[in-house]
Structures are given as structure tokens and as C-alpha cells.
């Protein structure tokens, strides 16, 4: 009876229940980073690499997106984290270290590993060739 009542209430109120994914946070974090379309594509590339990596399941979606944003900023030659990003994400730079390191490893081996399709997709000029950008060594 309780489940039926929950269903009835949800239908009447038109609630849509979804699970947050890293893409749910993508635009917000890129906007907080004052990023352009290239940064957005670079973060998307890193998130797609993480999508098929089983080890990334241990990270919360918001943390994964924050770490991808941080790494994308580093790859772009910008400061990796700012007080504005910390405010919007509720993560400090130290919270991101493990996830950033993991994503950097995925990025470094993207062209040679099982994720060749993602690398090929983001190597095209349509995606600003963000897959061709080198992984920073000073993480």
C-alpha cells in the first residue's frame, strides 16, 4: 500500500526522479571556472574516459566532474582550482587529488588503451582536438 501511495503521489506531483551524473554538474562547474567551449569539451572528454572505467565508480559524480574540471584547467595552462570553484562545488583542492591523478592516468593512455573511440572522437577539429592536448606532469 505504501509503494502504491508513493507512486500515486509522484504521478500527481509530476516528480521526475533521476540519479545525478557527472554531466549534471558540467555546465555549472565550467561556468564557475569561467571556461569557454574548449574547456567544456575537454571536461566532457575526461568524463567520457571515466565513463567506461570501472575504477571511477568509487567517486561521487560531483567529485568526478570537479576533478575533471580541475584537470582540464591544468591541461589548459590555467590554475587548477579557485575559491569560486570551491564555493560552487563544495570541494577543496585536497579533496580532488586522488580523482585528478586517476583521470590524468586515463588521459595519458587514452589513445593507446581500450578507449580509442573516445580519443578519436575528441581528436577531430569539431571537438577542438582536445584529445591531442598533453597531460600535465606537475599534478
Features:
single chain; 139 residues; mainly alpha; 7 helices; globular
What does this protein look like?
34% of the residues are buried. The protein is mostly helical and 139 residues long. Helix content is 60%, strand content 0%. It contains 7 helices and no strands. It is globular, with a radius of gyration of 17 Å.
Tally of extended strands?
A: 0
Rounded to the nearest angstrom, the radius of gyration is: 17 Å
- Please report the distance between the alpha carbons of the first and last residues: 54 Å
Measured as a percent range, the helix fraction is 55-70%
- What best-fitting shape do the alpha-carbon axes yield? globular
Structural class by helix and strand composition: mainly alpha
Number of helices: 7
Described by strand count, sense and barrel closure, the largest sheet is: none
- Strand fraction equals under 5%
What ranges have pLDDT less than 50 throughout 5 or more consecutive residues?
none
What is the H/E string? HHHHHHH
Mean pLDDT: 91
Task: Give a summary of the structure in a few sentences.
The protein is an all-alpha fold. The chain has helices at 2-13, 23-32, 37-51, 61-75, 83-89, 93-108, 116-123.
